[in-house]
Amino acid sequence: MFGRRSPHGIDAFANGSDELQPLQTATGPETAGSNPEPGRGAEAAPPSLPATTALSTADRHDAPIRSDTFKTIRSAVFSSMNMSAALMMSRSDVRAGIEQIAAETIVRDRLTLTLAEQTFIVDEILNDMFGIGPIEPLLADERVTDILVNGPDQVYVERGGRLELTALKFRDNAHVINVAQRIATAVGRRVDESSPMVDARLADGSRVNVVLPPIALHGASISIRKFSKRNITLGRMSQQGNISAAMVDVLRIATACRLNIVISGGTGSGKTTLLNALSRFIDEGERIVTIEDAAELQLQQPHVVSLETRPENSEGLGGVSQRDLVRNALRMRPDRIILGETRGTEAFDVLQAMNTGHDGSMTTVHANTPRDAITRLESMVMMANGNLPLMSIRRQITSAVHLILQIERMRDGVRRVTHVTEIAGMEGDVVITQDLFTFRYSASAYEAQVRGVFEGSSLRPVFAQRAAYYGLEEALLKAIQS
């Protein structure tokens, strides 16, 4: 197998080195999706293992990857391989070559391995070359929504809204750092001791955050937020119990009427999933500009311009912030501006955009209640312009934002939209809101699964007049009363 010619005429198994090249853009199986998928908690099945061997989980992931046998075979493979050429071949072609080298090494060094262990070692080497190491199989597991690597010895996953410790391990901390650097390099970013934190994404769109030592005290940390393969719609969320059918009708009308909507919630509550689902009601004839730190929105409309921030380089130059992109987006003739998350001074420019003809814009914020979301917007606007009086800021928020949707990941792991709150105006210096829908949980029925109902207030929405302009007032009132 040494010096073997590939079917593509590339000598991939000669003049090799033990250094992995940057992660390729076609990384592993496609596992596109959004934020943790809502509503999977109640129906999540027990975790399954990759069906590559019959070994126990602990044996497969603790002993082999750190064993001398694994190191011997891996060293033989990389010393016989031209990595640059191999990465241009298909995974199946490279696998055949690795299997032959592994078999020859086992015979030459008289290693004792079962066929299952040999298959596992080949899979791990391929995952190092074409994927993200030992955690590559987790990307193919649709039930996994988050992958959390805490150094080489701890890999957690979230299934159905609950964290589980897996038996997966890396060889050592250098192995974790190598995987993290290949992920960052693939999207044109860098992470090392001088720049120990980075936000990046995988080829399937999954969001990645990396923190390296010395910032991470117990080894490199990698946090991956996966996206579901299934396109989540409000209809599907209604079937899963994340939202009621009446709420879906009202949100469909609100989006069609070009209301400015803020989605509020905690980390991992499903804000981006809900934003993606809402965007499906946007007319295909509109021009949409999306702005994100790490691109994760998956809009289905044909006319979408996606912008992504850029961090500063090692000289502190070249950075492009969300605020810069919001300002530039105003010159791009957008019908709607969708900001993945508002977390800083860009809040001022977002409110300005909503107030100056870009109706139907949407964004998300981190907050625990709709009232807290308003307070957070006030604080972020003050960060941008501390000289603005609070009354002026509140008037801007009142005129810019029409609806606040509160989504929460509850203790049973299910994401539910707990409030659909309308900003009704101001009374003195107080912003007036009214809840159109709320989720009321049953305090008397404490079980593993949260019990409750979605309740409508039957109040006439302030935006009913706007709905009449679009010919949707009757449909709105019918949905509110249902």
Describe this structure in words.
The chain is an alpha/beta fold. The chain has 2 domains: 57-225, 2-Layer Sandwich (Beta-Lactamase), CATH 3.30.450.90; 234-481, Rossmann fold (3-Layer(aba) Sandwich). It has 16 helices and 15 strands. The strands form 2 sheets. Strands 9-8-10-11-7-12-13-14-15 form a 9-stranded mixed beta sheet, with helices on both faces. It has a 6-stranded antiparallel beta sheet with strand order 3-2-1-6-5-4. Mean pLDDT is 82; it is low at 1-19 and 21-61.
Features:
elongated; Beta-Lactamase; Rossmann fold; AAA+_ATPase; 16 helices; 15 strands; 33% helix; T4SS_GSP_E_ATPase; T2SS/T4SS_dom; 6-stranded antiparallel beta sheet
Major sheet, described briefly? 9 strands, mixed
Please compute the radius of gyration using only Cα atoms.
26 Å
Strand order of the largest sheet: 9-8-10-11-7-12-13-14-15
CATH architecture of the largest domain: 3-Layer(aba) Sandwich
CATH superfamily of the largest domain: P-loop containing nucleotide triphosphate hydrolases
Taken from the alpha-carbon principal axes, the silhouette is elongated
Low-confidence stretches: 1-19, 21-61
Strands, total number: 15
Label the structural class.
alpha/beta
